[in-house]
Design goal:
alpha/beta, Nucleotidyltransferase, domain 5, 2 domains, six-stranded mixed β-sheet, globular, DUF3800 domain-containing protein, DUF3800
Amino acid sequence: MLEDTESVSEEVTPEQKRIIKVQQDKENLMKQLSEGVLKTATARVAFILNHYPETRDSDRLLTLRYWETFQKDLYNGGVITSQAFLRLEQQSDITRARAKIQNTFKEFRSSEDIQRIRSEREDTYRTSQIQLSEDATPVSFIFYDETGKTQNYISVGGMWRSGQDGVLRSSIMDLRKQLEMESKDEFHFVNVDKKNLENYVRLIDVVAEESANIGFKAICFCQKGSGQKPEDIVTRLYKVGISDGLQHEIETGRISIPRTLNIVKDKEDAKDTLFLEALRLDVAGHIKAAFDGKVKLGAFAAVESHIDPFIQVADVFMGCLNRRLNLPDGTNVKDQLAKYFFDKFGINPETFETEHYYDFINIRMLD
């Protein structure tokens, strides 16, 4: 009996595990600061809080200092352009990092007056969240692209995101800084060559680490001999692909409905405006009927790909898929990247199915 009692007493409780994890994270953060290796957004925020004490009481000042220090290519103290604003680290993410450093790690604390004000504000926020209507609708984003219009197989698909995107977005921005990419530089499958192949491999690795809130989906059709116009096929693939993707998200438990769906695609040419409006009406009606009005279409917009890194991620995914579909026996550097993507996620190049990432990736061939 004594041995049993001792073994029980030695078990680590969930609260003890949490405390240990917090301490480990804090030690790792302080190590990054001492070594000057700021790998994460949290470490960079801690750097600002440490070197600029006045930022500890003001999230606005903290954000400006962060931009000035780590994103000089986008903000130099002057006017912020709309394109630069979309690429700057979001203030909400900086604020969350600051709160973790000050409230969880108990480092670089704000003044007592500010601590009191923030505590009262957080209490008010929690109360308001409890009182929110149950009708509040969650949102999903789809970053879409189409490929293969002049080839045998046409595909429509891209990256789906549900939940917060701050971690992945920050990780991609970190990678861009490590690669010394300028604001105008983009990840585009068409630009893959021997010199930058490793950069794209690293991008895929970054995305793979953050698969909890994102996924890749595509629907493909062999247009050879179909007698259909590519534009008509693309419209059909958008409608069916979005419904198919929603069903996959629901069946795998990644999302629930009701839900609002926002769709963003790469802006290709002047025809996008007319095409998008017609497509928006088609898709809105299709998903409304398919999901009994429980899914509604929010934004349906075409934007320049350099504005949002997620559009670039969608482009790389669709480029890899297109390569495997239309040039399955290719051996050049683009084929190497496509093979790496498929191998990374265990996608069978014959069936386009994956066992380990079935809830993350869904590629379907439409008859």
